[in-house]
Amino acid sequence: MDKVHPSAAAAVHDIPDGASLAVGGFGLSGVPDTLIQAVHALGVTDLTVVSNNCGVDGGGLGVLLAAGRISRVTGSYVGSNKEFARRYLSGELEVELVPQGTLAERLRAGGCGIPAFFTPAGVGTLVADGGLPWRHGADGGVAVASPAKEVREFDGRECVLEHGITTDFALVRAARGDRHGNLVFNKAARNFNPLAAMAGRITLAEVEELVEPGELDPDEIHLPGVFVQRVVELTPSQAAAKGIERRTVRTR
After folding, report:
1. Residue 84 clears pLDDT 80, i.e. is over it
2. In the chain, domain spans
3. Quick one: which of 26, 41, 48 has its CA closest to 170?
4. Residue whose C-alpha is closest to residue 45's, from 70, 20, 14
5. Is the pTM of this model over 0.85?
6. C-alpha angle 84/89/90, rounded to 5°?
7. Best CA proximity match to 207, nearest among 233, 187, 227
8. What angle do CA 136, 139, 140 make, to 5 degrees?
9. What is the mean pLDDT of residues 6-21?
10. Residue 98's pLDDT band (boundaries 50, 70, 90)?
11. Which of 94, 73, 7, 50 minimizes the C-alpha distance to 201?
12. Residue 248 DSSP class
């Protein structure tokens, strides 16, 4: 039951080329940076990533992206990541853009064993009708486009069929965790982390504070340890390293 690994490198050691990863975080909040850096150091490539966004230039998943390790991204937001946009538009990266709520539910569904579900989000758009550019060609044209999805009517409302997502591995970050893998997230850092953890067949969690089993009140646990296979305790410096995506201050 002790799921603690001595280092991030030890936790990611068996992630192979071509693996799929669900990664928690929203912007730079709750991003498993230490595990991402360990994956980068491992040298694996051709990764398929499912995450709300793909980090920023030089931070989060942007580290793997800049190194050319990611071949496909399923996400909701490109943001200000210029390297992401460049690789997508040049045809170096395949991108499946998904409405944010739909992405969250696809991860949750995959983690719960639900193969697919219907939602009204995306009906009447390219999300349902198909034709979203997944990959561009060298000439700037669309090389691969999204297929059309099944649409059915429920109580007079059209809904589109979306499939649950499962991945080979998941990388998440928590504020507190115990040796059994039970996790507690801090405020907004909770974001996509529980959903990504549920979707991974093997889930790796980096925790800012490691406690012994029984120290966490069962009522405060956000993600039970059944969804987590490996735990890495962060050093104080790793736990304190939290980036700010866009620093904003008021005029004095």
Report:
1. yes
2. 4-115+164-235
3. 48
4. 70
5. yes
6. 100
7. 233
8. 45
9. 98
10. very high
11. 50
12. -
N residues, the chain: 252
Lowest mean pLDDT segment, chosen from 165-169, 175-179, 241-245: 241-245
Q: Which H helix or E strand runs over 73?
A: strand 70-75
What is the CATH number that goes with domain 4-115+164-235?
A: 3.40.1080.10
Q: Which of 248, 204, 252 is nearest to 225 (CA)?
A: 204
- CA 147 to chain CA centroid, Å, is 23
Of 33, 72, 74, 68, the C-alpha closest to 53 is: 74
Tokens of 202: 């093997």
pLDDT of residue 35: 98
Q: Which two tokens stand for residue 36?
A: 């991402």
- Amino acid present at 246: R
Ordered DSSP codes for 128-184:
HH---EEEE-TTSSEEEEPPP--EEEETTEEEEEEE---EEEEEEEEEEEETT--EE
Q: Are 234 and 211 in contact (CB under 8 A)?
A: no
- Beta-bridge partner residues of 105: none
Give residue 10's pLDDT: 98
Residues 13-29, mean pLDDT to the nearest whole number: 96
* Residue 236 main-chain phi, psi, to 5 deg: -55, -40
- Cα gap 67→155, rounded to integer Å: 48
